[in-house]
Amino acid sequence: MNLIINGQPREMAGGTFTVGTLLETLELGQAPVLVELNGEAVLSREFEGRAVCEGDVIEIIRMVAGG
Q1: What's 2-62's CATH class?
Q2: What is the pTM of this model?
């Protein structure tokens, strides 16, 4: 599956992904992140139910606290 992740083309092996499984594949499953899928914000409670499809544009921002 071909995706655009944070502005970079990326080919993902495998068949079906949700936002949650994509984050796990990218080793971000436990990290606090903000996700935008095709210009629409995805709430963390929706990660497991939102399908990722061929050609989707995804922005992932890791949330970091500090001062």
Answers
A1: alpha beta
A2: 0.88
